Prior knowledge:
- This protein has 6 helices and 9 strands.
- By secondary structure, the protein is of the alpha+beta class.
Amino acid sequence: MARRALREVLGREVTSTLVYDAPHNLIWEPDGAEPRYLHRKGATPAGGPDGEGGAFSYTGDPVIIPGSMGDSSWVLAGAGHAALLASACHGAGRSLTRGRSAHTDEDVYRRAVEKLHVVTPLDPDAPHVRRRRDILAKYHQRMKEEAPYAYKPITPVVRSVEEAGIARRVARLWPLVTVKG
């Protein structure tokens, strides 16, 4: 979606390269002699340095802990903590359920998102959309569900991950634009 948007704006083909895929909520095939499957629910791989010459053998697996539309995300380097199955959390989690956040007061919602840059397939300011109250109501409900106040702060979570020896901080990423598809 991002490549397509850039192609349309720039008027030329845009290419990209996948640097790392940090899957979460997957079941992993056994890699050893024991036939045990590893199910990471809300967690991501955090393998440590292994010295075997792989892409991340010196640093450990990249661990991406996303923030929210209004909070930073973090890139960490996994430590391969065996007792934790070389896994790390995938975010801080919600502070409000989707249902509760969708019913948040309009003023609270507007203040929370007024400085955010959110790109969606729907332009709520387009003349033909502004006349459709049903579409706008659904759009704002979805935005409320994902608004920054619906999520816990990320920094305390990242600090605890580092203090527990699960991964070490590498970079903090601040959101400039949020793409919701």
